[in-house]
Design a protein that fits this description.
The chain is of the alpha/beta class. It has two domains: 133 residues, Rossmann fold (3-Layer(aba) Sandwich); 160 residues, 2-Layer Sandwich (Dihydrodipicolinate Reductase, domain 2). Helices cover 40% and strands 22% of the residues. A seven-stranded mixed beta sheet has the order 11-10-6-9-8-7-14. It has a three-stranded parallel beta sheet with strand order 3-4-5, with helices on both faces. Belongs to the Gfo/Idh/MocA family. It holds the Pfam family GFO_IDH_MocA. This is Inositol 2-dehydrogenase.
Length: 310
């Protein structure tokens, strides 16, 4: 993910220069930095202290997200942190509090779907009343294979968290309850199906997450209203006839499916950071997604519907 961000910033985003890269895998950091004329530095502290570094992208493992974001805030530097903002609501709440104490917004959280052309068109249609009053939202989120480190709780906290951010963004309503179920009783409990209540039950939403769907990376969303429905339009696909089958190829992973979104996200972030600010999902919005995810994990573990207080 970090390598992709470096490449996109260097090749597709005007007005920005990658000057420094840090990773605990030193040789990897040196290779990535060399490709864009940057230098590899020995620590995050060294990177943050460098006066030539005006803003920071965090694409390191989840447990480092909150500590590194807090360090960026302490340094007064705009930061784009990949989701989730922290491991659990306590960590993300600490980031929200630190940013509020600073008195200005510096944190952008990498919920890139907000920048996807299809999702943006979907949201505009919904917000403009194109389908009447929203009553149902159906979401599908499938991967070809789970990450080797995937956990049952992570299906909610690391994968479903995208939908937990998208749903309030689409509808303008907070998630007020969640129930997560799975047909698996042991091992990686995948797939999972969540039923969410938004706005106290004014809207119901379903989210299917299936990490081991095998056939590819597939994200879908349909909004059902009192006056019609609107579905997420996938990016243009090429029909391929091969090995006795014909049809559109399914992207292999999220990077291919959301390539446009990542470029748009980074471009918007660079523009905001150049003015000393932030854009996209805020720390508070990311914290709210973490709160819902924690309730979802509780539901997965207990088998009960869990109310969400935000």
């Amino acid at each position: 993910m970090g390598s992709d961000h470096v490449r996109v910033l260097a090749e597709h985003v005007p007005g920005v220069r990658v000057v420094a890269v840090h990773d605990v895998a030193t040789e990897r950091a040196e290779q990535v930095a060399a490709r864009v004329g940057a230098r590899a530095v020995g620590s995050a502290e060294e990177l943050l202290a460098d006066p030539s570094v005006a803003a920071v992208v965090i694409a390191s493992p989840d447990p480092t997200h909150a500590p590194l974001t807090l360090a960026c805030l302490a340094a007064g530097k705009p930061v784009l942190c990949e989701k989730p903002l922290g491991v659990g609501p306590a960590e993300s709440a600490a980031v929200v509090a630190a940013e509020e104490a600073l008195g200005r917004r510096l944190v952008t959280v990498g919920f890139m779907r907000r920048f996807d052309p299809g999702y943006r068109e979907l949201r505009a249609t919904v917000r403009e009343g194109g389908v009447g009053d929203v009553v149902l939202v159906h979401n599908v989120h499938r991967n070809a294979a789970p990450h080797p480190d995937a956990t049952s709780e992570g299906v909610v906290a690391n994968s479903m968290v995208h939908e937990l951010d998208v749903l309030p963004w689409l509808t303008g309503l907070p998630v007020t309850a969640i129930e997560v179920r799975t047909p698996r009783t042991s091992g990686l409990r995948d797939p999972q199906l969540a039923v969410l209540e938004l706005g106290g039950g004014r809207v119901l939403a379903t989210v299917e997450v299936f990490l081991a769907a095998r056939y590819g990376y597939d994200v879908r969303c349909e909004v059902v209203g009192t006056g019609g429905t609107v579905s997420l339009r996938p990016p243009a696909l090429v029909d391929l006839a091969r090995d006795g089958r014909a049809g559109p190829a399914v992207p292999a992973d999220f990077r291919a499916r959301f390539a446009q979104a990542y470029r748009a996200e980074l471009s918007a972030w660079v523009d905001a950071a150049s003015r000393g600010g932030a854009t996209g999902a805020s720390a508070l919005e990311a914290h709210r997604a973490n709160v819902v995810a924690a309730a979802g994990v509780e539901s997965l573990q207990t088998g009960r519907r869990v109310s969400v207080a935000q």
